[in-house]
Task: inverse folding
């Protein structure tokens, strides 16, 4: 095609992170021609800087179906795109009576909402995972639905699958600086599409800044760590977390027993609450352990990480794990969009253009399910 000939597609997606990939995959599955624009030579944002956890158990009951549909897409893509994924489930570990009270209350009605969970005794918990600290363990909530992927590997593999198998045209090193529906402009180049999806993550500045400013959306910086590969053949098994995580996810928000737990944390762990620290433990494709994280909110976040936050993460990690190797090989931070009180931000700045943003740290868990609803016109 001559360079000056206008390139036309059914769908254009701006952003090559997990939200953009979900939109592109869903549209391409329906036989639509798709072009995707990624401003870098590869995706380097929040989508490769997370735990790689598909985490349905943490989602509110009214969003669980979306998470489970997204989980099914991850299972499909694992087979099609050939990346590592471990369907290991998760353990929420309890070392205090108030933590067990939240777990027990949640489990009483969990099946009515579609969660697949079980309350375990200490002995049963240790049979599920050899890496749980036994001293003081009172029990755990075991969920079967969580899947662990290595985000650095998986995102790259999905990009490749979309390009090579599904026929999605991916324009790397392309910054869409203006949208004038149905046209998109990057420098001297112009494309045209019937539907345009703006999935730019934490970049609020390039496109539609007034809409983002009016939305109340902000940014969240999280700090994370990773160990070297553990010994050959080592497997974490279920992804692990503990009491602090019970107050982080919406699934547990309606538990009356959560309030006494929060009051204890306020008294005993104020720094953890001030920085939104809770600790998840996941595995990578080559056996590293990914750890984190903290939550710092604002539109002007420091580019520099704070050692004391990583120290608090590691201190809490030691209270519920006995891992083979606690050395730290890498530290980093990610930044994602956050809209308080909402699970996504959807806007239509003009006919044919849809902004999809604000998944608030649940992009890996929710994007594919959300994309189905948007492409099918349900949102």
Result:
């Amino acid at each position: 095609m001559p360079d000056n000939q206008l390139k036309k597609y059914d769908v254009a997606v701006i952003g090559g992170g997990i939200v953009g990939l979900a939109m592109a995959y869903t549209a391409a599955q329906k036989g639509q021609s798709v072009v995707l624009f990624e401003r870098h030579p590869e995706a380097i944002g929040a989508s490769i800087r997370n735990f790689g956890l598909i985490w349905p158990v943490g989602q509110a009951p009214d969003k669980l179906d979306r998470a489970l549909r997204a989980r099914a897409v991850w299972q499909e893509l694992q087979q099609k795109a050939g990346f590592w994924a471990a369907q290991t489930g998760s353990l929420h570990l309890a070392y205090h009576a108030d933590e067990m009270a939240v777990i027990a209350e949640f489990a009483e009605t969990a099946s009515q909402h579609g969660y697949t969970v079980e309350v375990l005794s200490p002995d049963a918990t240790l049979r599920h995972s050899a890496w749980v600290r036994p001293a003081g363990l009172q029990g755990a909530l075991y969920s079967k639905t969580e899947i662990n992927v290595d985000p650095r590997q998986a995102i790259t593999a999905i990009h490749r699958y979309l390009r090579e198998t599904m026929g999605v045209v991916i324009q790397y090193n392309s910054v869409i600086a203006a949208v004038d529906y149905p046209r998109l402009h990057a420098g001297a180049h112009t494309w045209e599409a019937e539907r345009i999806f703006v999935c730019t993550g934490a970049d609020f500045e390039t496109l539609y800044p007034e809409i983002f400013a009016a939305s109340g959306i902000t940014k969240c910086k999280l700090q994370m760590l990773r160990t070297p590969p553990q010994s050959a053949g080592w497997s974490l098994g279920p992804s692990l977390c503990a009491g602090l995580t019970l107050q982080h996810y919406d699934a547990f928000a309606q538990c009356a027993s959560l309030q006494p737990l929060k009051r204890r944390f306020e008294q005993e762990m104020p720094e953890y609450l001030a920085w939104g620290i809770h600790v998840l433990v996941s595995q990578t494709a080559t056996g590293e352990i990914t750890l984190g994280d903290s939550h710092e909110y604002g539109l002007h976040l420091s580019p520099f990480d704070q050692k004391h936050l990583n120290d608090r993460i590691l201190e809490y990690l030691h209270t519920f794990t006995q891992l083979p190797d606690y050395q730290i090989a890498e530290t980093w931070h990610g930044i994602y969009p956050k809209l308080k009180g909402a699970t996504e931000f959807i806007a239509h700045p003009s006919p044919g253009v849809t902004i999809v943003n604000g998944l608030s740290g649940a992009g890996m868990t929710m994007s594919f399910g959300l994309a189905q609803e948007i492409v099918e016109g349900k949102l």
Notes: The longest strand covers residues 189-198. The mean pLDDT is 96. Residues 64-81 form the longest helix (18 residues). Residues 95 and 136 are 6 Å apart (CA to CA).
